[in-house]
């Protein structure tokens, strides 16, 4: 009888030859009393990523080699669908764990706290160009994040962590996660998981997010301008409106994200003009209303934006 898989690590990688060893080694060094699998979806890398995995980790991971580049979202969802674990952990091949007990701490929390759907932790950000770590979390930061927080426009306080596996449920409709932005899963996947339940944030640094910004690199931040990144977020917010319009009020989420990027572009006239061109006419009017409201109310959002009866429309 095969041992039950408790955790499925769903690792997406593309041209990560410089980082994949550090990533996979951080999983191999984990102190865990349960069985887990590592599913690696290589999105048709053109460097030596696949060669490194096949030569050094062949019997330790399940490697899925894409014949054509699917984009991060399709790559990740396919791994979710293949996962056998009770829990899943989405992960990128250029990040890594920095605590040998990271997986145990997260899985053990969910095993003993059924009221939570997912658990994550603080993360250190490593700036590859500067060769420097940044610690962005604060001791007084939230230990919990829920759907109401997300819908009200509050930025997620951490990365995604270990999540209860809903992809084995044949009644689950998650195909929209493949749609919208091709290589940015953040907005739609946060919505999907928050709908299922709240997140707990462990106030410990368990993982490293590697920030790479280099014109010669092929990662998402390097190959996309700020405007293109905003287009992806905006596209996915519109996707969420089409999927959840009859259940949730998405106006606060949309306006806070649009305004966040509007502020970023405000000092560069051409970028601001290009940004405005992306928006639908109704969203331009909404943004103008929102900015006037903030100006008149000491930059505080409307109180109703934080009320569950306003955000949750019904099932």
Give the gist of this structure.
This protein is α/β, with parallel strands linked by helices and 315 residues long.
Protein model, in words:
The mean pLDDT is 94. Helix 2 links the parallel strand 2 and strand 3. Helices cover 39% and strands 19% of the residues. The protein has 315 residues and is an alpha/beta fold. The chain starts with a strand and ends with a helix. Strands 1, 2, 3, 4, 5, 6, 7, 8, 9 and 10 form a 10-stranded mixed sheet that branches.
Order of helices and strands: EHEHEHEEHEEEHEHEHHHHHH
Broad structural category? alpha/beta
- Alpha-carbon distance between the two ends: 41 Å
Strand proportion, as a percent range, falls in 15-25%
Q: The biggest beta sheet, please?
A: 10 strands, mixed
